[in-house]
Design a protein that fits this description.
By secondary structure, this protein is mainly α. The chain has 15 helices and 4 strands. It has one domain. The strands form 2 sheets. The protein has a two-stranded antiparallel ribbon. A two-stranded parallel sheet has the order 3-4.
């Protein structure tokens, strides 16, 4: 296979006494003055146990036949698994794959592999999320979070087709099948593409190794999530399949509704690179670019923030990926004040509902302009 390195885009230098330098110093001072570790605390470990229980306890009840003949209970347990799956994704494996549980890389790596248990693959996730999305947020052609299927136009830099006019209506269906596609075909397609762009080498894995491991993980996943319930739940195979799909549709829709309002918003800059001395470069520094393309939401909703791993504080997360999400609420006022000092925007929606409405309006706008 011919290897073609990704067409890298560089950011403008941050400069001395820059916004990023200032906000880093202030946040560092916060942790030092309060004698707090930026890693996970005991509350985070309790949360991990709760999220895991929301997924695995309903599963055990399903497999042991507890819900046999009780249709509403049966599907209710699958829904609880969807909640647990979402919680594991946002509040457990997300932090682990960013290395924020502990200074010990082995602990982070161990916890990160809970992603394989719920059907994913850590290598492709880290490349898409940590490498591409966090580096090139909202840069068309590099950020795969917006480079989706042709039916969705998530950036004004992407080509518009006539059917995008209706995407604000049908996008939610594709959001629903997000995790189902991920657990079936996405990992395979990604790993081939990442090998093509020479992105696997930094993860210390070859294409053949990756495909073998993905296949092994998928066999394990579908074996315990579908085959065992068919054999032991006491429910017909088609109801098990319906429960499995119900779990994924619920989790996919919820997770998409958490991630999409953070970046695909009218307030986002969606800046594109310019040619400078024969290379592509962004006009802004990386930190300024992140602030301009990211939106916080529902900062006062503590229950939501707890459940989604602080991802409603998306600006703080993008600037401080090495800090555990349990600290974002305290960091938000520091980041907001520093942004104001430098005359930078700080996008925030007051509620989750308002953020979703604004995202829907952006989908409509992108489909018509």
């Amino acid at each position: 296979m011919k290897v073609e390195k990704l067409d890298i885009v560089r950011f403008a230098p941050r400069g001395k006494d820059s916004f990023y330098e200032a906000v880093i110093n202030k946040v560092a001072a916060y942790f030092e003055e309060n004698d707090i570790s930026p890693y996970a605390n005991s509350a985070m470990w309790w949360k991990t146990g709760i999220m895991a229980s929301l997924y695995f306890v309903p599963y055990v009840l399903i497999v042991t036949g507890y819900a046999a003949g009780k249709l509403w209970l049966f599907f209710g347990l699958w829904f609880l698994m969807a909640i647990g799956m979402s919680g594991i994704g946002t509040a457990v494996m997300h932090d682990a794959n960013h290395g924020t549980y502990s200074k010990d890389k082995k602990i982070n790596n161990f916890i990160s592999h809970i992603l394989e248990i719920i059907g994913g693959y850590t290598v492709t996730w880290r490349i898409q999320h940590n490498v591409l999305h966090h580096t090139y947020t909202n840069v068309a052609g590099l950020d795969e979070d917006i480079d989706s299927i042709i039916l969705l136009r998530l950036s004004p830099r992407q080509k518009r087709y006539w059917f995008h006019r209706y995407q604000y209506l049908y996008a939610w269906f594709f959001y629903m099948i997000m995790t189902l596609f991920w657990m079936t075909a996405k990992d395979y397609l990604q790993v081939i593409r990442y090998r093509h762009h020479d992105l696997l080498i930094k993860q210390k894995v070859s294409l053949n190794q990756a495909i073998f491991r993905i296949t092994l993980y998928k066999v394990f996943y579908y074996g315990y999530i579908i085959v065992l319930p068919i054999l032991f739940s006491g429910m017909p195979w088609y109801r098990v399949l319906m429960g499995f799909l119900f779990m994924h549709f619920s989790a996919g829709l919820f997770l998409s509704c958490v991630f999409q309002p953070s970046h695909v918003m009218e307030a986002s800059a969606f800046a594109s690179p310019i040619q400078t001395d024969g290379r592509k470069q962004m006009e802004d520094s990386w930190a300024v670019h992140e602030v301009a393309n990211t939106t916080d939401f529902a900062p006062r909703n503590r229950a939501l923030s707890w459940f989604i791993g602080g991802l409603n504080y998306q600006i703080e997360h993008h600037l401080f990926t090495g800090v555990c999400h349990v600290h974002y609420q305290r960091l938000a006022p520091i980041v907001r004040a520093t942004a104001a000092e430098f005359g930078l925007p700080y996008h925030v929606q007051p509620t989750f509902r308002k953020a979703l409405l604004e995202h829907a309006r952006m989908l409509k706008k992108l489909g018509r302009e």
